[in-house]
Amino acid sequence: MTFFKNINQVHYEGPTSTNPLAFKFYNPEEKIGGKTMEEILRFGVAYWHTFTEDLSDPFGVGTAMRPWDKFEGMDLAKARVEAAFEFFEKLNVPYFAFHDVDIAPEGDSLKESNENLDTIVAMIKDYMKDSKTKLLWNTVNNFSHPRFVHGAGSSNHADVFAYAAAKVKKGLEVGKELGAENYVFWGGREGYETLLNTNMQLELDNLARLYHMANDYAKEIGFAAQFLIEPKPKEPTTHQYDFDVASGYAFLQHYGLQDVFKFNIEANHATLAGHTFEHELHYARIHDMLGSVDANQGHPLLGWDTDEFPTDLHTTVLAMYEILKNGGLGSGGLNFDAKVRRGSFTPEDLFHAHIAGMDSFAVGLKVAQRLMDDQVLDNVIDERYQTYQDGIGRDIVEDKTDLRKLEEYALGLTDIQHQSGKLESIKATINQYLLTTFTGE
After folding, report:
1. pLDDT confidence bin for 1, thresholds 50/70/90
2. Active-site choice (49, 99, 279, 354)
3. Would you call 102 a catalytic residue per the annotation?
4. Is the pLDDT of residue 235 over 90?
5. Is the peptide bond before 233 cis (omega within 30 degrees of 0)?
6. Which residue out of 49, 100, 102, 354 is catalytically annotated?
7. Catalytic residue flag (residue 150)
């Protein structure tokens, strides 16, 4: 069955194209810094937003018009698989990602849920034989069902912990079966509302126990995927244990998991935490913890997780700069954890949105590569910190001084000459690179 009848395969047509179903800047075969765009960007489609999202919100029912929604139950799940691989082929993406309940409905018992999952996994595996599209990562949904009202790995109820662990076990098996390159843990309910009824120590210890169990089982079954934690602040709980990269990294270090996990960083989650996207990428990068990216953006006027497709070019430039500085994303990728707007309800809008996101990151890649080649930001930073290149500064960074020596040096100071941070000039230079990268001027 064909679900996107009026859409052909999307191709690169260049910046002057007026075809809304063509790439203007993303040319998968174009080489940037010795690698193709496809190899560097490693785009992925999020199964949940693209094939199960109905565009409902707290104030209204879903508006999405999807040709597969005439089916129900397992028939619907199978139709979504068919639609997904048609979409992957026409968009020519190398990766996709999913939660367990995205691809198969939950049954009346865990056993029935696993059986449903086995049926759809077998179908996906069969489709993957004839498709270039691979599984970037998979995970399990341990947050939507009412059983997880008080958390999953951090639940106050041991039965819920056991249920969540059983789902993780199945998720690892599914990942191995489908060749997932990563496995993500997103603690949607791993947090608390108030300390008045919370044993935080027990919850954190138990969450770490679950992660260690998962690592042990992955080794047991030979599942060598990179484990990823996806930080998120605030919603749905008041205090999330994985608030941002810094808090997540501290957790991993405390429980001896820093060599097992890296981070899957989402742009919208970064801004909800009060950070920029590039801050979270940078913090992860300098600690060798940058694993993968959920590519989206939030709305600057709304204080929740809007999951918009990324179109802010300034942000994609700075994001790609960090990714290039990281040497790429390794086994990770740019997964579009993004949904079309409620008023963009046609199947064609799914293509328009992904094209916009892919083009935006392609622009970011090309500009970031030029900034790196010309050492624009490296030169700025080297100049700003030049006092650490020799003299007392060099002694500080080489650990050749102490408080007494520093006091003796400081007593001899008469006037400290600061230099301008030149932030406005730096931003203007980035704008210049943005505007001239594609004009040749």
Report:
1. confident
2. 99
3. yes
4. no
5. no
6. 102
7. no
